[in-house]
Amino acid sequence: LLAAGLIKEADGKPGTYYDRFRNRLLFPIRDAAGRVVAFTGRIVSSESLVKDGTVEVAKYLNSPETELYHKSEILFGIDRAKNAIRTRGFTMLVEGQIDVILAHQAGFANAVALSGTALSERHLALLKRYSENLMLVLDADPAGLKATARSAVLAFHAGLRVKAARLPKGKDPADLISEDAKDFSLRVAAAKPIVEFFLAEFAELERDQHRFQRLVQEIIYPLLAAISNLTERGYFIEKTARYLPEVPIKDIHESVRRLPKQPVVREVVQKSSILTASPRSPSEIRSEQLLAVVHAYPHTPLAERVILEYYRITEAQELPPVSLPESVLFSIEQTFGEDPDERAGDELLRAFEEAVIREAYQEAVANLRRAEASKDASRVASAQNQCAKLSVRLATFGS
C-alpha cells in the first residue's frame, strides 16, 4: 500500500500510517489497457479546505510517482477514449478529470486529460498511436493560454497537427458543458488551427500594436518554427503577416528561421526490458501476445476463447501474472481492430500451440540424450516414447 501510494507515513510518527485519500472522492487513473495505476482524490466538502481561515489541504490530490504510475506517460481517460479517437480522427485534450467525464457524457468520448503535470513527449507519443490530430480545449485564462502554447509547440515537434477551441473567459470545459452543452459542441466544431487561434485571441486581447507584435513574436513565432512542413509553415506565416502590416513578410520568415530547433519527439523505449533481459522463447512471445488480447478485449467472446485455449494448450489453471508493454497492446489493437470476431485469435493460438509443442519436443530430445548417456534402458524407452508423441503432434502443424 505504501509503495502504491495509497497510504502515507505520518510526520514524526515512524511506523504510523494513514489513508492518503481519506475524505476524498476518488477518480481511478487507468493506463491504455484499462489497468488502474493511480488515483486522483477530490475533497468532497468545501469546508474541508479551510481551517481557521487558511487553506489546510489541496482541493485535488494525485497519487505520487510509483513503479506503476508515471505522470509523464499516463493520460486520464485514454483507456475509454482510444477507440473514439480513432473513429473521430482527433484527440480532445482538456485539463482535468471532471472535464473528461462531462465531455464523454456530452458525446465527446475522444477526450483525455493530464493528471497534475504538463504535457510531455511521452504523452504525445502515446496519442500519436491513435491519431495525428490534436485539439486543445484548455482554460481561457492567461495561464491556460500559455499552457496551450507550450503544448502546441511540443505537439508540432511530435509531428501532430494542432487545433484549439475557444472557451468563454473564466470557463473550463466542465463549466460550459454543465451550463450549455450545445454551445460547447459549437465551439469544438469551430476550432481553428492553433496559429489562427492565437492570432485571433491576441488581436482581441491587445489593441496596442507594439504589445500585440511582442505577443506574436513570443508565442506565435516559436509555433511557426515548430511546423516541420515548409508549405504549411509558409501558409501560416502569410496568415501571421496579415496581422503585422508594418513587418515585411521576409522579416517574419527570417525571424522564424533563426529560432532554435527543438528535438523531434521519439517514443522512449525502456532499457530494462530490452537491454538487460535474456532472450525470450517463441512460446513466451506468443503467450504475451495472447495475454494482450485478453487485456485489450476483456469480457468478449474472443477473450473467453483465448483463455480456454490457453488453459488447454498449457494445462494451466489460471493465467500467469504479467506486465504487458504498451507497444504489445498497441500492436494487438492495430491487428485486431475495434470489434474482432471470436475466432480472430485462431492464427495466434495455433502459432502459440506449435511453439509450446516444439519447445517441449526439443526438451524431450535433450532428455533422451541424457538417458542414453546414462545407459538406463527404462529411461531411454520413456524418453523415446515422449519424443514420438510430441513428433506426431508437431506433424499436425506441417513441420
From TrEMBL:
GO terms for biological process: DNA replication, synthesis of primer. Residues 89-168 form the Toprim domain. GO terms for cellular component: cytoplasm. Coiled coil: none annotated. InterPro entries: DNA_primase_core_N_sf, DNAG_N, DnaG_primase, TOPRIM_DnaG_bac, TOPRIM_dom. Pfam families: DNAG_N, Toprim_2. This is Toprim domain-containing protein. PANTHER family: DNA PRIMASE. Gene3D superfamilies: 3.40.1360.10, DNA primase, catalytic core, N-terminal domain (3.90.980.10). SUPFAM superfamilies: DNA primase core.
